[in-house]
Amino acid sequence: MEEKAALELEDVDLGVFLENVIRIFDQRLKDKQLSWVIDVKENLPPIKADLFKLEQMMVNLLDNAVKYTDRGEITVSMDVHDKRVRIQVRDTGIGIPKDDIPRIFERFYVVDKSRSRRSAAQGSVSL
What are residue 38's phi and psi, to 5 degrees? Predict the structure, then answer.
């Protein structure tokens, strides 16, 4: 049976968090001539989160957005909705087929293996 690591909850300032994460991708965005659209509502409350796991999730989302977007922009928005903080990542890339969306959080699930191989052949790097 797999042991799950305990969450290490701490207060996270989402504005600072996002600035640090998107910095990782700045050069790749410049190389692909893509742009960021950052829409973070003012006065977002800090959240209790496992910073490492939150960073891992955001890096994975943004990595895929950059990898599968050939032109346009990647939008990250954060706001409060029903007393919860909502984080959204949108891009102008090829998208995910609706039938695959329920499975995207499964470990090792790949929507289209040929698409991943094509990206690897084009020099994309996964973090």
Answer: -110, 120
